[in-house]
Amino acid sequence: MDSDPPFLDTYKTLFENCIGDARTERPKDEKISIVEECELPLIDLSRLNLGVLEREECKREIAKASTEWGFFQAVNHGVSAEILERMRSEQVKVFQLPFNKKAKEKLLNFSPDSYRWGTPSATCLRQFSWSEAFHIPLTGILGLGEFNSLSSTIGEFATTVSDLAQRIAEILAENLGLKSTFFAENCLAGTCYLRMNRYPQCPISSEVFGLMPHTDSDFLTILHQDQVGGLQLVKDGRWITVKPNPKALIINIGDLFQAWSNGVYKSVEHRVTTNQQVERFSIAYFLCPSYDTLIQSCSEAPVYRKFSFREYRQQVQEDVQTTGYKVGLPRFLR
């Protein structure tokens, strides 16, 4: 399709050199294979609006899932099914545009580098992601012309999901004994962003990931995915496949929350597999602070040294450029 990025042509040398080459094959535990499908902890957030007992039990479940899994699914989350359906419909329209239009034209007032596909820095298949995405700062969603509908839908989606992220963050802070205004003061609309993802059909789906294994460099991520499936995460030292739930949003802890909580909450490695038959869509909201925000634990014995979000992002980018991989929080251990 002329809407698809030219993965096979652009990365022809990488694929030819690496597929079947034992020197660049994945370790056994990273092989793309069928892994056990599992239901994430499922939490009904409507209980936060009920009586004290129901509310406190719901908060305990959120904290427990964030500690033991780093992930959970939320239903009755306050984001309407109508908004989610419109969001998916609108993002499909954008991804169906001709590849040259997506890659070369400035859509929706997005910055020139908002459209990303493949992995230019990859030197082996373990470092390659068969996907395309639009990274959208929440300050850049004013659309023009044919994209007005997408712009307004993104605005509605971002507003409701942002409120949800703030509420979850406050609950997790409260569980640590902190009545904190930290997130409301530092994670503003101008510092958070969305990422619309598309994972095209992949003829070499047994060889490459849709999104390579990684952790998120934020406080919280809220994900809306379709029913194709493909999201996998590490639990108890093994990869498991997340079973899609049409009524749920997926919420996961990011690196910054793990550091801020002194390791109480877990930022868990996850990835997306490819599919040879069907494409997959998702949209993620990332709760991020300003670049100058200092991340430090309130614990008397902090595991991680104090660092700014800017310093963290720069270190991640440097590691990816030099090694092909994100190192992340281990760089900031005391």
Automatic annotation (TrEMBL):
Sorted alphabetically, the Gene Ontology BP terms of this entry are: gibberellin metabolic process
Q: Which protein is depicted?
A: gibberellin 2beta-dioxygenase
- Tell me where in this chain the Fe2OG dioxygenase domain is found: 190-289
Q: List, alphabetically, the SUPFAM superfamilies matched.
A: Clavaminate synthase-like
Instruction: Give the keywords, sorted.
Output: Dioxygenase, Iron, Metal-binding, Oxidoreductase
Cross-referenced PROSITE patterns: FE2OG_OXY
Q: Which reaction equation describes what this protein catalyses?
A: gibberellin A1 + 2-oxoglutarate + O2 = gibberellin A8 + succinate + CO2
Taxonomic source organism: Tetracentron sinense
Q: Which family is annotated?
A: Belongs to the iron/ascorbate-dependent oxidoreductase family. GA2OX subfamily.
EC? 1.14.11.13
